[in-house]
Amino acid sequence: MKKLSFIIIILFFGNFKNYAQDDLNPITTAAPFLLIAPDARAGGIADMGAATSPDASSQHYNAAKNAFANSQWQIGLNYTPWLRNLTNDVSLTSAFVTNRISEVSAWSASLTYFSLGSIELTDDTGVSLGSENPNEFAFDGSYALKLSENFSMAVGLRFIHSDLTLRIENSSIQTINTFAVDLSGYYQSEEKNYGGFNGKWRGGFNISNMGPKVELVVGGDESFIPTNLKLGGGFDFIIDDVNTVTANLEFNKLLVPTPPIRENGEIIEGKDDDVGFLQGMFQSFYDAPRGFEEELEEVIWAVSGEYMYNNVFAVRAGYLHESPNKGNRQYFTIGAGFRFRSSTLDLSYLINASDVTNPLESTLRFSLSINLGDVYEYF
Fold first, then answer.
1. Torsions phi, psi of 251, nearest 5?
2. What domains sit in the chain, N to C, each tagged with a CATH number?
């Protein structure tokens, strides 16, 4: 019998769920790495990004923000260690590039690579059968266009590759290659005076990873990829020329059907989840077996704040909450950012607030971004 590291099993089936309670009904998908926040700026504000100000990694959260980018070119490099308490060779690495091609439009592209490290294989007697290096990656591009002075939209196309196969006898896991589409929008108000301070409103949405179901196991049932809806809002308290405080609120929901409750193969509660991805997106709003109460449990919410001094130094904090019945991710985040001329270094750290292990516990994340070319002063 071949042995496979428990790490790949955990990552393959999703976000470290706990199945001890009868009312737990988590939603699992193929390629869950697509939902991991890649950069340390978002990592410091509870992995938020639907309506935060534009930065080098906006492509992941809301590509429409790129039409409001404050420089002609933005380049972002991000590295996130994964499961650092258990291993040292699992990580998420990403690179982003954005080009503001005019006053009203921008294109962007990114590459995200998730390495699951080296998996050692042995037979029943402990004899080595070699090693495997399973990995997943996504390559995407988008185009953002301002439809007015304050609102923009973007469309994106993503190629997804997931290779968790084991080249051993009787392995049934197969390589996945598929495509997905993103649709997003972003609003940013003009700066206005509110008495003792100026302010600016922001709002955004992003529907990401809209694409067909995939077959993870040869001859098995097809699985959904993680189609996800982000809705966010924020407000910038511009206290004076050098001090700005930002408050953010964001909601996330998987647009994937909730598994029904079955007995002897028959559905007794909920709706059949063996549907196409388009029907599944709409069905995800009303198919939970326990009704509206469970639908609310499927909404992840997060709040955060960011203080910026003189546009050169930032401190951040945030909190994310996921229902105990849907994964039980609950954590605080802290972070900081340092700008050096055209470069910015961001750091973040996660503090777990749940009894479920978080893969980013005791992990320092960092990102480097570079701004080049013309600066859009009116931003």
1. -125, 140
2. 6-375 (2.40.160.40)
**β-pair partners for 233:** 203, 249
**How far is the CA of 197 from the CAs of 193, 244, 264, 315, 379, in angstroms?**
6, 10, 63, 20, 18
How far is the C-alpha of 168 from the C-alpha of 209, rounded, in Å?
A: 31
How far is CA 148 from each of CA 2, 153, 160, 374, rounded to the nearest angstrom?
Answer: 59, 10, 32, 21
Q: Would you write out the chain's pLDDT as a tens digit for each of its 379 residues? A: 344 444 444 444 444 443 445 578 889 999 999 999 999 999 999 999 999 999 999 999 999 999 999 889 999 999 999 887 777 788 999 999 999 999 999 999 999 999 988 777 766 666 766 677 889 999 999 999 999 999 999 999 999 999 887 766 666 778 899 999 999 999 999 999 998 899 999 999 999 999 999 988 776 788 999 999 999 999 999 999 999 999 999 999 999 999 999 888 888 888 999 999 999 999 999 999 999 999 999 999 999 999 999 989 999 999 999 999 999 999 999 999 999 888 999 999 999 999 888 899 878 999 999 998 766 543 3
Tokens encoding 135: 């990995």
- Cβ(78)–Cβ(370) below 8 Å: no
Note the pTM of the prediction, 2 decimals.
0.89
